[in-house]
Amino acid sequence: MIKKIICVLVALAVPPIALSANWNSSDQHAPAGAKRYSDEDWNVTFVRACGALKSAPYLQFIEENGDRFARFTLNTKDTAGQCKADKKVSRARAEIRTIERMTLGKNYRFSANVRFPQGLAGDAIFMQVHAHKPNCKNRPPVKLRLSENMHTLALEALGKSTRGAVQGEFGSQWTRVDIVLNDLGKSGTVDILVNDKTVIEKVETSITKTCTRPWGKIGLFSLNNKNPLRTNDTVIADYDDVMVEEFP
Q1: What SS3 state is found at 40?
Q2: Could you tell me the sign of the dihedral formed by the alpha carbons of 239, 41, 142, 37, in that order?
Q3: Distance CA 146, CA 163 (A)
Q4: Pairing mode of beta strands 234-247, 215-223
Q5: For residue 1, is it within any domain?
Q6: Mean pLDDT score, 126-134
Q7: pTM of the shown model
Q8: CB 3.0–4.6 Å: which of 22, 49, 146, 180 could bond 191 by disulfide?
Q9: Which of 119, 155, 99, 128 is nearest to 221 (CA)?
Q10: Residue 4: enclosing H or E segment and its boundaries?
């Protein structure tokens, strides 16, 4: 995982990687000419989510102790959102999405090492699985929200929130987060593991439309000044070892 890199701070764009046989073609789900983001110890490639992602420091690739990772920086008072719905509601986001797609009826593990080097006194959504596309509408089956001084992790699915206690797990140290999707689709469930410990399990994540091919998202999303828990003006989140893996 150690890489010889002269620059301390760089942006990375890479060509498509080999895909699982149960994923759709990456080229089909990446806008023409879109900048791609990945790393040598990731098995997925990302592009910007919802239009133009603002320039640095919203997304940077940083080297630390010979390892490279992605850093997202979001000022919650900014209006960085470029999705269509962001124009109606005050939202801030700095996100990227996988160009690989999952297949309904399969089991997947979407995982990453995550850390918040300056902590998080407020709240933010930091990992998601989406399944909505034009002419094939579905609610996001997974949104992970960290809140209450990083003591609580909430899984938001089907308009409901399921909470788990994670005091001491998140902070300036790296934390392993696994989103385990079982039988992805209408009867599917999701488990959330933090540092190999199950904190939320068997939550329904129904995807009713067979036309969709879900994908993963990393980065920060927050409603601007709408939540009384929010006290951070700026939130920083780091991501490394990002993987999407199918399992039996």
Answers
A1: coil
A2: positive
A3: 10
A4: unpaired
A5: no
A6: 89
A7: 0.84
A8: 180
A9: 128
A10: none
Q: What pLDDT band is residue 76 in, cutting at 50, 70 and 90?
A: low
Q: What are phi and psi of 110, to 5 degrees?
A: -105, 115
Whole domain around residue 76: which residue ranges? 9-247
Indicate the pLDDT class of residue 231, thresholds 50, 70 and 90: low
pLDDT at 181 over 60: yes
Give me the half-sphere count of Cα atoms (radius 13 Å) on the Cβ side of residue 189.
6
Tally of structural domains, the chain: 1
**CA-wise closest residue to 156 among 196, 203, 86:** 203
**Do you find a cis peptide bond into 57, omega within 30 degrees of 0?**
yes
Is the per-residue pLDDT at 23 higher than 70? Answer: no
Scanning the structure block, which residue is given the tokens 């690739």? 61
Estimate to the nearest angstrom the gap between the alpha carbon of 91 and the chain centroid: 16
Q: Identify the CATH number of the domain in which residue 54 sits.
A: 2.60.120.200
Residue 17's Cβ-count burial label (10 Å; 0-12, 13-18, 19+) is middle
Residues whose CB is less than 8 angstroms from the CB of residue 212 and which lie 6 or more positions away in sequence, other chains included: 104, 131, 132, 133, 136, 138
Does residue 183 register a pLDDT over 90? yes
C-beta separation of 108 from 28 below 8 A: no
Instruction: Find the largest Cα–Cα distance for the chain.
Output: 49
